[in-house]
Design a protein that fits this description.
mainly alpha, Polysaccharide biosynthesis protein, 477 residues, globular, 3 domains
Length: 477
């Protein structure tokens, strides 16, 4: 549901803000996301882990929450104060006129964002996954509704930022209410007994580094484009990124599911099953993502102006340059979760650190020379390197994700489909007709060729359909 809201709201926000202000909004969210990593990542995974353990001590959960509540407050306060100081010293102004004010707003966003993260991960620690989904939808909905309303009232970028603040604060309150109904508030605010703070503090140190490397891939390029090229260019580039990243919808879901299931397999030392699972997931994901990427590449010249407006036609070439890397990263996402499930984070950090370094170096070299296209090329290479590096990390960890990969059959299926839908699109004059006909044609051709070449087997398709809810379940009860 959050993805549907994002798909619907993004072009509205882009049109209301325009290229320049949308670029400013994008770079502010990137700065916030990177800045929050050391502030938030030290809290979220830790509180989720230790609350879920629910040890024999009567007040274990209250002591865990007490520790992380204090730590969250201290880190949020320190982060806000530091941001206010560096903004007062003039750092915010280096991004352009008005950014000092925006950075002061981000200082407030840090506090509410911290407690939203604490509440959400505590909810997960209690095993209340059914609450997390609605809270995510609530956050996205309130952000969009409040943000767009304030933009329409003339508040521009500040309006969108304030929408984030209101949404995060609301989710923190709702999540907090769900938490306090399950604990003793008296114990939570009582004087703490002796507790192993070292155990809490040492947990997640490697995970913070891993998150920093991965998140840098998503945000460093945006910040560098804004700094080197300007606000409008950042808006055009972010628009291309947003479309390319829609390829990740299914892999992100798989990533979240595989982290838990693969952890169980690793703990039981079921290495052959891990390899078989990773091999199938990698091949299935590759087929799905290549189908989506070929379709988006073919229709990009129609999709971009219809989705964002004619002014954003300049985003088409960066989008095409980003797609190969987005495909690689999409295939790599499930592997990232399986590697995390093993607990061997050092190898994973080496792999993601290498990709993050490639990203910074190439963007630094290519953006001054080629602008948006340079940023798209650099980011695409770094995204694509994640697939190669995570295959290496997987093999170092103890499983092979390319077992039964069938690369020749996948390539033949993709090329045949691409040529077919490209020719079909070239024969259709209407944008709307093409956007209706070409995806359906592409799906039919791709499925048929994949079965003929045995890029995927019939029995595998039947097995997948058996897992799909009605009306597609071929064996209804």
């Amino acid at each position: 549901m959050t993805t549907v809201i994002a798909v619907i709201s993004t072009p509205i926000i882009v049109r209301l803000l325009g290229p320049g202000r949308y670029g400013d909004y994008a770079v502010l969210l990137s700065v916030y996301s990177l800045y929050m990593i050391p502030i938030s990542a030290a809290i979220t995974e830790g509180v989720q882990k230790f609350v879920a353990e629910d040890r024999e001590d009567d007040d274990w959960i209250e002591r865990v929450l007490q520790f992380y509540l204090v730590l969250a407050l201290l880190l949020a306060f320190a982060g806000s104060v530091i941001l206010v100081i560096v903004t007062w010293l003039g750092v915010g102004a280096t991004f352009g006129e008005g950014f000092s004010f925006y950075f002061y707003v981000l200082a407030g966003f840090i506090v509410v964002g911290q407690f939203r993260g604490l509440a959400m991960h505590t909810v997960l620690g209690f095993g209340l996954e059914h609450i997390k989904g609605p809270l995510e939808v609530l956050k996205k909905s309130v952000t969009v509704v409040v943000g767009i309303a304030l933009v329409l009232s003339g508040l521009g970028v500040f309006g969108m930022l304030f929408g984030h603040i209101v949404a995060n604060a609301l989710v923190a309150l709702v999540g907090g209410y769900a938490i306090v109904t399950r604990i003793s508030v008296r114990k939570l605010f009582s004087f703490p007994r002796t507790v192993s703070y070292r155990e809490f503090l040492s947990f997640n140190v490697l995970n913070v580094v891993l998150v920093l490397f991965v998140m840098s891939l998503f945000h460093v390029d945006i910040i560098m484009v804004r700094t080197v090229v300007g606000d409008e260019a950042t808006g055009y580039y972010k628009a291309a990124l947003a479309l390319a990243e829609y390829l990740w919808i299914v892999p992100i879901v798989l990533q979240s599911l595989l982290l838990h299931s693969s952890s169980s397999l690793w703990s039981e030392e079921r290495y052959e099953q891990i390899t078989e699972l990773a091999g199938r997931i990698t091949r299935y994901t590759t087929l799905l993502i290549l189908l989506m990427a070929v379709g988006l590449a073919t229709l990009a010249h129609r999709v971009v102006p219809l989705y964002y407006g004619e002014a954003f036609m300049v985003s088409t070439v960066p989008l095409l340059l980003l797609l190969p890397g987005a495909v690689g990263f999409a295939i790599a996402r499930p592997l990232l979760a399986i590697c995390q499930g093993s607990g061997e984070l050092k190898t994973l950090i080496l792999a993601t650190g290498a990709a993050a370094t490639i990203n910074v170096v190439l963007n630094g070299a290519l953006i001054p020379l080629f602008g948006l296209n340079g940023a798209a090329t650099a980011t695409s290479v770094s995204y694509g390197s994640m697939f190669v590096l995570l295959v290496w990390a997987a093999r170092r960890t103890g499983y092979d994700p390319l077992v039964d990969f069938r690369p020749v059959r996948i390539a033949l299926t993709t090329i045949t489909t691409g040529v077919t839908i490209f020719l079909a699109d070239s024969l259709i004059g209407s944008d709307i007709v093409s956007l209706v006909v070409v995806p359906v044609l592409g799906l039919v051709v791709f499925a048929a060729i994949a079965l003929v070449t045995r890029a995927i087997d019939v029995d595998e398709v039947l097995e997948i359909l058996e897992q799909v809810p009605l009306p597609f379940d071929i064996h209804p009860p």
